[in-house]
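Hello Y.,

Per our agreement to keep a running log of every chain we model this quarter, I'm adding this entry. I've kept the format consistent with earlier entries: sequence first, then predicted structure.
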Amino acid sequence: MSKQLRVALVAEGPTDGVVIKAALNAMLGEGTFVLTQLFPETSVAFGPLGTGWAGVYRWCHASAKRGGGRLSGYKLLFDIGMHDLLILHLDADVAGERYENNSIQPLSSDLPLPCDRPCPPAADAADAANELRMVLLSWCGETAVPPQTVLCTPSKSTEAWVVAALFPQDAEMQRKGWECHPNPESRLGVQPLAARIRKSKADYQSKQQDITAAWGRLRNDLSEAGRFSTDFMSAVQP
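Predicted structure for the entry above:
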C-alpha cells in the first residue's frame, strides 16, 4: 500500500474503536492506516448526539441530512480526501432494543426495532444481524451498503470478540453458540484476578496487541468477525 489508508469510524463507544483498530492492525499491518473515530469522540460538529446506539442513530440521520437524505450524498466525508473508508459499527444486541427506550421518535423511513430472533440457533442470530444491518442502513437513508462503507455488527457485542481473543479457555465462551450469549461483557469480571480487565478504553488498549494476534482465530470462529474481515478487505482492494 503506497500511502496510509484513511479510515473513519462511527461506533457505539470508544472501547469498540480500540477493538476495531486491533482488527485493522491484523488485516492491514500496524502503521499502514490512520483511524479517526468520528463518533463518539470527535462528533462535536453534529451537536449533542447522546451515546451508544442512540448516538449512532442520530449521527447517521445527521449525516444523511447533510447528504440530501442519503449518507452516500454526504460528499464531505470522502470527496476532499478526508477519508478513504467509513466503518459503521453497531452491536447486534441492538436488534432487541426499542426506539422509545432511548427517547427516539423514529421516522417513517426507519425500519422497526426490535428485530431480534431466538438465539440459539446461531443461524437465527445471523438473520437478526442481517435485519439489524438493514435497520442501520435505513437510518442512513440507504437500502444497500454505500460505496466506501463497511458495516461492523459483532454478535451480541464487541465484548464477545474481546473475551474470545483474551480468554479462549473461558467456560461460557467454549460453549456452542458463543455469539448467542446475551451478555459477553459479564465474562470480563469473572476471569482470574491477574488477567482480569474492565470495559474501559485504557484496559482495552493495554490488550490491543493480544487482540490483534488473535484476530485470525476470531475471524474463523465467529461469524460476524469473519464477515467484517471479508467486507473490509473487499472494500480495501483497488
